Amino acid sequence: MNRKRQNNQQVLALEPKDRGEAPARGDGETEPFMAKSATENSAFTEQLMEEVCDRENLERAWKRVKRNKGSPGVDGMTIDDAKAFLRQHWPNIRSQLLDGNYRPQPVKRVEIPKPDGGVRKLVDRLIQQAVLQVLQERWDPTFSEHSFGFRPGRSAHEAVAQAQRYVADGYNVVVDLDLERFFDRVNHDILMARVAARIPDKRVLKLIRAFLNAGVLEDGLVRPVDEGTPQGGPLSPFLSNIVLDDLDKELARRGHRFCRYADDCNIYVRSHHAGERVRASISRFLTDKLRLKVNEAKSAVARPEERKFLGFSIANDGSERRIAPKALDKFKDRIREITCRTRGISLRQMIADLTPYLIGWRGYFGFCQTPRVLTNLEAWIRRRLRLYLWRQWRNGHNRFTELRRFGIAKFAASVAAGSPTGLWRMSGHPAVQHALRNQVFDSLGLPRIFMPVPA
Length: 455
What we know:
Elements: H1 3-9, H2 16-19, H3 48-52, H4 55-69, H5 79-99, E1 107-108, H6 117-139, H7 156-168, E2 173-178, H8 182-185, H9 188-196, H10 202-212, E3 216-218, E4 221-223, H11 235-253, E5 257-261, E6 264-269, H12 272-290, E7 300-302, E8 312-314, E9 321-323, H13 325-338, H14 347-365, H15 371-393, H16 396-405, H17 410-417, H18 423-427, H19 430-435, H20 438-443
Parallel strand pairs: 1-3
Antiparallel strand pairs: 2-6, 2-7, 3-4, 5-6, 8-9
Helix pairs in contact: 4-6, 5-6, 9-10, 9-11, 11-12, 16-17
């Protein structure tokens, strides 16, 4: 075996001190990938697959997969299990990638425990992420300024704010297009034609096609897939943006004002008549040119207040962005689930369970311009918690004792504790509210979802 091949087979399974190198960047852990070889430092760097397999690119991809994986999945596979697998098998996987022979695993529609199944799924996610990083650097700058989904430095909030500006400028009729099962219906030939026009490396093209055709594992059988993008993979949204870039260019060519976030596309016009005309012509374009199907039942031409865009609705004059009713209903359903009165846990534990959901929800929907809605939701959550405690106290004696402990006068505590009124009504009783004031929940760490902007 010559020296170059030895370099290509080297694995970063040694500790930094054994290699005579500084610790790896980031969390200081050694990543399970091979050192950059002499081949990768030569003219081969112009070939995309070598860039995909570049150590630094793989380490970035690994850290992203680690962040997204979190706790063990339903198959019990942890990120450390995958790391051990990669230390042993990465040289062979890398060789398959460079030779153009790597074959992804079918996507599991129904999780079935299987040795190495979870590991191989993580490896495929890692490879998809590595491919994404290389392609995105080249492709993203060419995407439309009206495209906001799954792009570095862009967000759903920016898309909603842009839509609000269109409405405020007088384009107060929205053409809301819903693509039927978009991620399941992307035409492989159309997608690969667009990818091949920009990617000269046939190994990368073959790998992307392999991910598209990997199939679905369902009830122990692999079902072939001839359309759609890889389910749940990091590469899927990027490939979808490639297909829908044709839509962006067509809308821009026609001079339309629009916002697109993945398959969620809204076009803003001045009249209902213009909206119907645009809806019909763009639907034909999507069907004829991209072989995508518009869901007529869910698409509409309407006033902005009547539609939702990324969880928000916009006032018809563009003066205000609000949380869409369906998003509020979903929020309340989740809170009811977490604060179910029969859970049998402490109030402190319930608040601990609520906290990550409330913080995440606030981070997104706090972008609304309706503070009263947020403060009303806060009051409703506290009332749910008062109801939970009132039920947990169970009988009149315990309720009287607890109310007294919270400083309620004897007479008021006695009246409240002996009341036959139902749980929900009692959660709003003055004595209960005074005993369990807002400060009590603040002291237990219950997050506020309305965060006033500092003056």
